Amino acid sequence: MTIDHLWLIVSASFVFFMQAGFVCYEVGFIQSKNVISVAIENILTFVITTLVYCFLGFALMFGPTHLGIFGGSYWLLNNLSLTHPSLGFVFVFFELMFAGTAVTIVSGSMSERTRLLPLLLAAVFLAGVIYPLFGHWVWGDLFLKQAAWLKGLGFIDFAGATVVHGTAGWVSLAGIIVVGARKDRWDPSGKIKKLGRSNIPFAALGTFILWFSWFGFNGGSLLAFNDRVGLILLNTNFSAASGVVGAILTNHFFLKDHSYMEAIFAGALGGLVAITAGSNYLLPLDAVLVGFISGSVVVFSGLWLEKLRLDDAVGAVSIHGFGGASGTILLALLAPQEFLGGQTRLTKVLVQLFGVSVNFLWAFGLGLLMFYLINKFLGLRVSEEEEEKGLNIVEFADIYSWQDYLKMTHYEALTQDLSGTIQVQNQLLQKQAKLLVETQEQERVKLARDLHDGVGQSLAALKLQLGMIAQKVKAEHQDPFLSGQIDRTVHLAADTIEEIRGVLFNLKPALLHEKGLSASVEVLLQNLQKTSGIQFDYNLLAPMPAWEEAASLNLYRVIQECLTNILKHSQATEIVVNFSKLKSNLYLFQISDNGQGFDVQKVHAGLGLNSIEERLKMLGGTLQIVTETGKGTTLMMEVPHDY
């Protein structure tokens, strides 16, 4: 055994470790009620791949060719040692790990709603037919010196960006189309919903394991241990790192409502997939560019799939399908001329595009047919009830998952009951608050009527009698001191009557019903300016909406309360009142003063702000306070309305 053979065995072991990476990655990104299902699926699909690929698929992929379409001869690994006594079984072991990678990717994309048996049947067909036949067209000459028709055209795929990852990605696309989206993945309005993830640190661990294993994936594909291994490993690492950068920047500038976390994982794996096509040919700076572009492609393609309502549980289609295609095509644009096989760069680009297109038509077409037939005769998907319970219970009867399910359903029922109770109580409190306000207004009206009919009439009579007494005293007595006293008493009575009128206006603003809110506020400001001596500036910047009577009264009380608080506490000399429109259905009441300001947290309850907020809440409005000690206060009240 040579060092080349030893390097191949070590690299194959690296690639086998990818299975652990895929388990961690997929388990981290799905709901906890399905993690057992995913883990067991990965084990079983690798078992099937081992048997089917070694005894059937390897012969089709690397056996003596028939018309350049499929191989043969090495069925059940017969005659293998006669062809390559030292390399044969080592090569089978190495290539088996690549086949296992392709099959595992497909099962992950369809997680959380697909039955186990149909997935295992799909693994048989993928490992035995779809993957090895396309592999024969590209890599059929790696074991024997023979023609491989796509490679003969000049198609290059060094370590499997298209052969392995493209094939897996497009079969995954067919699978998620046939099986459909997970339950509640989109809400009725078409907005995507997060279904929850069991363990993101596990996904991070899986990403690192895959990153580590990729050194064997690309490094071993050289099939020799020489001075190019270092370049391959370095290019692999560069592309993964720049893939993360490309994905994050794309997310930041174009998809601002998406998670950076998903971009980090997808970018790293997308960069690894893309560089697989050309890690042996590109320079390090070219590898950085490949990773950066593929990271962006993965993010955009994932968004496109979401818009099409295609539910890929682990991003397999965008990472492996689109990532593999982008890396394969970029190879033709960036590889040094000596690796283009005598073709012009344009010709090489067209050849690479052709190879990627053949891969898509073959893998997606056969995948679609395969899943359609499986779905028709066996059924791919679990029932809605089974999906709700989780595949841990449905497929493997895991008692602990069953206990968790019972706890969760009990918790959900309890929270729904509590939510209903709270909603009823909130509605009751709102009704009580509205009733309280109405009761206050009724009491204000009654008090205003009593003052007008009682105290007001008595004060009017008192003023009249004082006037008559003053005239008589002035006529019969020539005492200046007494006349002055009488005049001051008459003026005091007149001032008291004016104050009572102001109180009556505040208690029952009749003008509000006659001329509306704007006119009533203007009169209120004029009265306050007379009594306080503070300068008021009133600006009606947009026409007042046609508020209904109850809303107008509540808004008047809110404005009145705001102004009263300012007069009592602010020590202001100027008050500016602006009414304006924010949007077509949102009106702004803004009151600013140049007073001493205050700390909202400390005096919130003492300034009547709770009363203001309650009234605004009944109108669907909000209050925002902008204040700072010594720098005045601005109250902004936004109130919706129907115009």
Order of helices and strands: HHHHHHHHHHHHHHHHHHHHEHEEHHEE
Name the beta content range: 5-15%
Spatial shape: elongated
Number of helices: 23
Q: Strand pairing plus helix content: what structural class?
A: mainly alpha
Low-confidence stretches: none
Please outline the major beta sheet: 5 strands, mixed
How do the strands of the widest beta sheet line up side by side? 1-2-3-5-4
Termini separation? 87 Å
Instruction: Report the count of strand segments.
Output: 5
Query: What integer is the average pLDDT?
Result: 85
Walkthrough of the structure:
By secondary structure, the chain is mostly helical. It contains 23 helices and 5 strands. It has a 5-stranded mixed beta sheet, with helices on one face. The model has no long low-confidence stretch (mean pLDDT 85).
Task: Explain briefly what this protein structure is.
The protein is 68% helix and 6% strand. With 643 residues, it is mostly helical.
Features:
single chain, 68% helix, mainly alpha, 643 residues
